[in-house]
Amino acid sequence: MQFNWENIGIKTRVEKNKQYFFDPIRKRYLLITPEEEVRQWIIYHLTQELDYPATNIAVEKQIKYLQRNKRFDVLIYKDGQPKLLIECKAPNVAINQSTLNQIATYNFTLNVPYLLLTNGAQQLCCRVNHVTKTCEFLETIPSYKSL
Question: What CA–CA distance (Å, rounded) separates 69 from 74?
Fold first, then answer.
């Protein structure tokens, strides 16, 4: 999957034959990799098409799980609380039980009610019930209001 970043208003530049784009959340240029393209696509989709506030988005932050450092891809906050955890994969990486296990591991620490896995072409979104320890799979990404 190849995105055309200039067409959606994301600044790009080339340095030493490598292409970079400007990440509006982290406020810096990043090397374009397949996973980073998916990460930027979902951020664009959330902020530009679903009206999620960019100020409530954290990207690639470190967390601790069983005394090990882990790094989540995207975390959405609402009213100061983490609400939606997103794991981004390169387009050639399948969304399957293994990727669901990865995001569930991060959620042991973060305890959010919504999880989203995406590889740009496929999304899997679910609402987590922490009391019953079950997941309800959703047809679409929830609106920011409904988080």
Answer: 16
